[in-house]
Amino acid sequence: MKLFNFLFGLSLLTLVLSNCKKEDDPDTDPVKPGLVLNELMAVNTKTISDQNGEFDDWIELYNNTDSTINLLGYYLTDSKSELSKWAFPDVQIASKSYLCVWADGDVLQSGLHTNYKLSSLGETVLLLTPDMKVIDQMKYGEQPVVIGETFTEKSFARMPNGTGAFSWQLPTFNSENIINP
Ligand SMILES: [Ca+2]
Ligand SMILES: [Ca+2]
Ligand SMILES: [Ca+2]
Predict the structure, then answer these.
(1) Residue ranges of domains in the chain, CATH in brackets
(2) Ligand nearest to the CA of 54
(3) pLDDT of residue 145
(4) What is the C-alpha to C-alpha distance for residues 111 and 4, in angstroms, rounded to an integer?
(5) For the chain, how far is it from start to end, CA to CA, in angstroms?
(6) Which of 2-11, 17-26, 109-118, 148-157 has the highest mean pLDDT?
(7) pLDDT of 12-49, one tens digit each?
């Protein structure tokens, strides 16, 4: 009987603990195993310039899957009310690789350039399939800007790379997002 009581108590305790764990789980930004928005800069004055030498806004994608994805017809937009604002041309993103798009409105420049810019005050960027399914979105607030001798620009980046939640980090254009040193 003692053993029964002990086992009964143990299973109750397990039940209580597992329920607690569920309640503590953050439900912000679940792991996204597929193609994701991985990083962006809405203020870029010295970090990285485009093919024309301009320090413009940019958005980085990361492909978590084991396959190359052709992005032709996928949409990347900064407006929930205009989901088809900008579509990708015939361009591929390899497995476990990065692809950066300049969000600068310079559609005639060579490379990938959207027809909009990112607001330094915050916006929502969405990635959609050609049949308009939202596969990822990132909502950012005002980009922190520190002006001074050690002025460091930040980007809004998934941590860990490709799967984690977003936070303001040191920019890693076209490469793995890393924790601030
Ligand atoms: Ca440009
Ligand atoms: Ca914008
Ligand atoms: Ca990066």
Answers:
(1) 35-169 (2.60.40.1260)
(2) 1
(3) 75
(4) 70
(5) 57
(6) 109-118
(7) 554 444 444 444 343 444 444 799 999 999 999 999 99
Three-state secondary structure readout of the chain: CHHHHHHHHHHHHHHHHHHHHHHHCCCCCCCCCCEEEEEEECCCCCCCCCCCCCCCEEEEEEECCCCCEECCCCEEECCCCCCCCCECCCCEECCCCEEEEEEECCCCCCCCECCCECCCCCEEEEEECCCCCEEEEEEECCCCCCCCCCCCCCEEEEECCCCCEEEEECCCCCCCCCCCC
Ligand nearest to the backbone CA of 40: 3
> Could you tell me the pTM of the whole model?
0.81
* Ligand sitting nearest the alpha carbon of 177: 3
Ligand 3 centre distance from Cα of residue 49 (Å)? 15
Report CA(17)–ligand 1 centroid distance (Å): 54
Q: Considering only CA atoms, which of 142, 134, 137, 87 is closest in space to residue 118?
A: 142
The answer to whether residues 124 and 23 touch, using CB atoms and an 8 Å cutoff, is no
Distance of CA 103 from the midpoint of ligand 2 (Å):
8
Q: Supply the pLDDT for residue 91.
A: 98
